[in-house]
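Exercise 7. Given the components listed, write out the predicted structure of the assembled complex. Treat all entries as one system.
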Amino acid sequence: MIRFEQVSKRYEGGHEALSQLTFHVAPGEMAFVTGHSGAGKSTLLKLLGLIERPSHGLIALDGQSLAKIGRAGIPKLRRRIGMVFQDHRLLMDRTVYANVELPLVIGGIAPAERARRARAALEKVGLLAYERQLPASLSAGERQRVGIARAIVAKPALLIADEPTGNLDPQLAVEIMELFAEFQQFGTTVLIASHDLPLIKRMKKRVVVLDHGRLVADIAAQEVL
Amino acid sequence: MPSETNPVDQQVNAPPRHTERQRPRKFASWHEHHWWSAGASLRRLMSRPLGTLLTVAVMGLALALPLAFYLLLGNVQKLGDALGQNQTVSAFLRTGQIGPAAELIATKLRDRSDVAAVAVKTPQQGLDELAKMQGFGGALHALDDNPLPFVLDVLPKPGLAANEVEQLVADLRAVQGVDLVQDSGTWRQRLDALLDVGKRAALVLAALLTLAALLVVGNTIRMDISSRSEEIDVLMLVGASRAFVRRPYLYAGIWYGLLSGLLAVLLAVVVELALAEPVSRLGAAYEGRLQIGGLPPWLLVAVPFAAAVLGWLGARLVSAWQLRKAA
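Answer.
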């Protein structure tokens, strides 16, 4: 599903965020990417979403090299990926429903089908009752759930999340992670960047550890203590 | 790989993943998004009435000025035509020419395509006219005989350009038996030259004000895009193409252009109505020969459409530039 081969990323100014990174994620697998602040977790996810391009190396998704995707192909790639952000990135002047529906509008899905899918996604994250509300009226945890509903509504093959529980209390964080695990159980590949080690240990999934942009450990799910 | 379906699929009994991408409803969704963009951009404009009103007012005034100038020039031209209707060219024949010779020259002139009428004025008629003039009565009694020649009053065809009248005068001077030609239409040449200057100035003004309108709409859209940069980033991150993101801003440009075009037409009509009464008095003073006109209907229809295209163009240029920076 995801292939990183000798991937390096050097930003303008010389800072090397990733260095010679090689790892694979199988289809339907759930993995955490962890490390201290500045280890390169967010850069890794940005490379997957083509928000940034690598300086060296190969990144492939479903066997397709991302280097071959031109500017015009980026939207198509992003429609195959569900993205969840720490700051949820919701449109605050649109209702919860409109936010969740957005990827379907962009994908050109018919209105009736959009309504069914958006409501199903909202129901899945337990927020169907809030569909007509604006995000500003929701708690941080609820907003993050809206962000997750938006990420899953188009049924992506890959779900990536950058510190999705960073702003949440521990109980809510566990609930959100369990939600991700549930999607993984049904075949979605999930890659989560997080520095919350206790939570990562609790989930008992594969962990990729980065330090200063280098892969320092790749711990299989069954080896997580 | 687990064999069960995604929880979202489960709840809605949706078909397997990715099949919706293959549905041949590209055109339908494109069409749908155009409608949505047109409506959403109009709602956005209406949600900030003062800002929209100011932009439309500035653009509308910029477009109305060339229209008003066009109206003014057209009517000055008509005024010149009306005033020039009775401006004859007088050809004084050599003294000693007899009546039949004068009539012969007049007949030849009447055949010309640039001549509307030729009147032959005898020496006696000339003397009578002089006699009616104050101060000449006594002097004429002192004359032994009539020294005045036959005069041909030549009326050029209405609508002749200044250079055509000039050519007619030159031809008259070359006619055998003509001693002197008096052209009272020099003022008309000057007016035509002034009108040419005015027309060129109107064109330059129109081009500059059109550019100003383009900049106004471009700057408004630029500010709109800047204030919505976060929304644009989100749209791009969830897979929106640049065309999708740009579309509402292009419609905003079209709305600004269309509304300002309508305002420009309205202002031009108001100017026309404000001038209607004094102009009709002026027309009456010329016994109906002066027909002052308004803006042609095709122009009133064309201006809002042209302004809408202008608005689209401004939005297109600015949005292409601004969205280059988007994720």
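Discussion: The CA atoms of residues 233 and 239 of chain B lie 10 Å apart. Chain B has two domains: 37-81+191-323, 88-184.
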